[in-house]
Amino acid sequence: MIQRSYTLKELASLVHGELIGQPETKVSGLSSLEQATSQQISFVNGDKYLEQALASKAAVLIVTRDLQAQLTTHQNFIVVENPYLAFAMLTHVFEIKKIDVGIESTAQIHPSAMISDTAYIGHYVVIGENCVVGDHTFIESHAKIDDGVEIGQKCFIDSHVTITGFSKIGNNVRIHANTVIGSEGFGFAPYQGKWHRIAQLGSVKIGNNVRIGSNCSIDRGALDDTILEDGVIVDNLVQIAHNVHVGENTAIAAKTGIAGSTTIGKNCILAGACGVAGHLKITDNVTLTGMSMVTKSIFESGTYSSGTGLFESGHWRRTIVRLRQLADVPLTQIVKRLDHIQTRIESLESTFNMRK
Amino acid sequence: MIQRSYTLKELASLVHGELIGQPETKVSGLSSLEQATSQQISFVNGDKYLEQALASKAAVLIVTRDLQAQLTTHQNFIVVENPYLAFAMLTHVFEIKKIDVGIESTAQIHPSAMISDTAYIGHYVVIGENCVVGDHTFIESHAKIDDGVEIGQKCFIDSHVTITGFSKIGNNVRIHANTVIGSEGFGFAPYQGKWHRIAQLGSVKIGNNVRIGSNCSIDRGALDDTILEDGVIVDNLVQIAHNVHVGENTAIAAKTGIAGSTTIGKNCILAGACGVAGHLKITDNVTLTGMSMVTKSIFESGTYSSGTGLFESGHWRRTIVRLRQLADVPLTQIVKRLDHIQTRIESLESTFNMRK
Amino acid sequence: MIQRSYTLKELASLVHGELIGQPETKVSGLSSLEQATSQQISFVNGDKYLEQALASKAAVLIVTRDLQAQLTTHQNFIVVENPYLAFAMLTHVFEIKKIDVGIESTAQIHPSAMISDTAYIGHYVVIGENCVVGDHTFIESHAKIDDGVEIGQKCFIDSHVTITGFSKIGNNVRIHANTVIGSEGFGFAPYQGKWHRIAQLGSVKIGNNVRIGSNCSIDRGALDDTILEDGVIVDNLVQIAHNVHVGENTAIAAKTGIAGSTTIGKNCILAGACGVAGHLKITDNVTLTGMSMVTKSIFESGTYSSGTGLFESGHWRRTIVRLRQLADVPLTQIVKRLDHIQTRIESLESTFNMRK
């Protein structure tokens, strides 16, 4: 584990920012505006954080030029166009990194497996027949890399991950703890009142620069493969069923589930706890807000939503009573009938010169 | 691991189908119509796949008699009544099977545990006091079989599964990676503003031919047991709380949760991400579509649904505004009032011979 | 493992109840009214269980004074004000406890870690640099306690739990199997069409008397910490994102997800499968019913709900059709227009002396 401090000059250079203040100011950490100490750097993510910035004890602030002009309380700045991005870059500078290399003595590795000399294999890891582990890949304790699985370079596989079903994992992939990749899909043929298991002969293919959170389940395909393209990011507790295809750079938030054989396009954002039914096609650049329920294909890019929102419970119960009546109420006719009736009344009234 | 090729004659016999074409045609794998090579067999699951079938390179097609007549492009067929079922049967022929037997040297097994000579126990498996593991059962690496757990014959327990709480597992049960069976139920007595834990004294009983996916949580009962009857199939990331009872051959898709003490009947289908509240009774042959929310018992067989469906987000926001007004709008009265008003207008009009 | 029997006198004393009947009656277990044998004790949780109580074979019943008067069928009672609480207390008496102490030979513990002499560390546990494990804490097999993690006294950490990210765990905390604490939050900066990972520099702080179920994911903070205060109880498969703050004694049921930087107050109850969006504030004493969807802060204590409830599917489909029309129907105007039209008709009618 490595942890050191940096000068303002070093940090400004790392994020290609303009330095204002004392170049030799020492910075030992990165923190929020509120919690920053006088040895730390922080960032101001827009005008709405101006007040917090004014009160912050941070030694250095990452800001836009506009913000810098308003922060007369502070002396040291890194001026950039996008402070959030500069902050994202600096998190890697201050991250405590593990730099182990080699194979712990307790790891069980099949003689046919090919493990790079620059990989790290933790305690009690089990790696099966014909597996491949690439350069600088880090496999934490207790991971299970089953027969025929291949993992690329610079990957991070956390503890208790299970990778099976001959899955192929690209480069620079991060898979967090207790996630399962390549387990068999939920495929059963109903026959004479019972469920007959369909052995799942497909696999999982995961591209480069993919990130998968903890406690996810990504099943292998029935015949063809389940595929996550390059740049896909997935949060925790996500279900990706057999034969799903997720396009490049799509982001999937926690607790979302995607049922079998559905295709999700590129650059989509699925917020938390969405449910997407099986055998659908969702085009590129679709955003689903949280808890969206998708039962039909989406052919047009855009933002989509589901659900009733939140009600005080008494109000909710009365709303549900009405909702149950709604099917039998010809909503669109009502307004037309009202208009029609109004016309007839006006005609009656004018005939008799009533109400003016 | 075993992988071999078969003749058309052998495969036709295995699925009790009629062979059309060259009996000695070699088949080395099973694939989708689209991806099949000229060494593989595929299946045509109804008329809607006819076009794909015509274009398929598959060496052999599994078809109905009707479909076969239309596929003049191909020479080799297996004709059956139910091609999907025949496909399901053949998946087992082409599945790569592990056939290990014995106990890996790194497994920790309590001397009082009884492990069949024909079972396989993987690396770093831990098996506690008085456990039983039946014939031909396969326990993958890192599984934890806690004290008093009994597992029947021909079971498959994948890596990182935790079975505890004296659970009893039947024969031919498959439990996928990282699932937890028998953990303590969420039982607390509120008293003086705090939660007092209720130790969970019940267990879990799982019947024969049950399938449980990855990352599931099935809790043990508070006093009595949590029960899954024979033939139940469960997908990934499913929550089954303490004292739930699931009837025979019921299927539960991914991300569904069933709260404590609820009873689900036989032959039910719960699609993905359903939520069933506690202490309910759901009768036999009930189907819940995806994301259904069940807060009352269901006494009639049938299909049930919840949710608003998906809206373009602007449309959704305007809909929610109206939904908030709905409780105070007497929907069923509106139509009656309209009818009544119309009658009165017609009466006025006829009195004065207006509008004919 | 310990299991013994108790006298009625002993049990009455343990729950501070009044003994009625034979003090030396032997009780070997605690059971539900329905399943209790004549060697077991059971409890009557209110009048609605009176019939079951009358039919119960239990040797002893825990009852209120009122109930006791009605149960002339039985001879032995413990009379208390709150039978459910007395039952909760007795579950601990009859729980089979593990009482191991010491470190299994297969555990891998970094020399810098400080493990109490009264702790138990199971098989294949891995404990990293500078970790601390307190007195009487029990860590089950295969757990991973990563570098810098500190765990207090009298904790129970079940198998396959992963604790990482320098998390700090208080005293008397229970974490169930396969849960992940301190994994990195889902933080990415979008830039030029790609997702740039933000290394997560915060940690997780868990107070005293906290309970976390199985298969949960609790992520570490981006800069500051994710915090669960004292007395929080969490069920299975729950997602708690980075920088969430959960107040004292709040209960979170299974399958709920809380997105990043949201603050939940004290004494809240979130029922199963709720979804709370990010950057919200929920005040104290809020109850959310199951599957609630929270997209705005809640400033008033109370009970809140979401969702449509369950419909027979045909009825549901017709309802959804209407719901899609709702946005364009001016609901609140309709009733006003009806009232207005009615007034005008009455005026017309009275002018002409129609209908009296």
Plain-language structure description:
The structure is a homotrimer of 356-residue chains. In chain A, 19% of the residues lie in helices and 28% in strands. The first copy, chain A, is α/β, with parallel strands linked by helices. Chain A has three domains: 6-94, MurE/MurF, N-terminal domain (Udp-n-acetylmuramoylalanyl-d-glutamate--2,6- Diaminopimelate Ligase, Chain: A, domain 1), CATH 3.40.1390.10; 102-304, Hexapeptide repeat proteins (UDP N-Acetylglucosamine Acyltransferase, domain 1, 3 Solenoid), CATH 2.160.10; 313-351, no CATH class. In chain A, the strands form six sheets. In chain A, strands 8-11-14-17-20-25-28-31-34-37-39 form an eleven-stranded parallel sheet, with no helix packed on it. Chain A starts with 5 loop residues before the first strand and ends in a 5-residue tail after the last helix. Chains A and B meet through strand 21, strand 22, strand 23, strand 38 and strand 39 of A and strand 4, helix 4, strand 40, helix 5 and helix 6 of B.
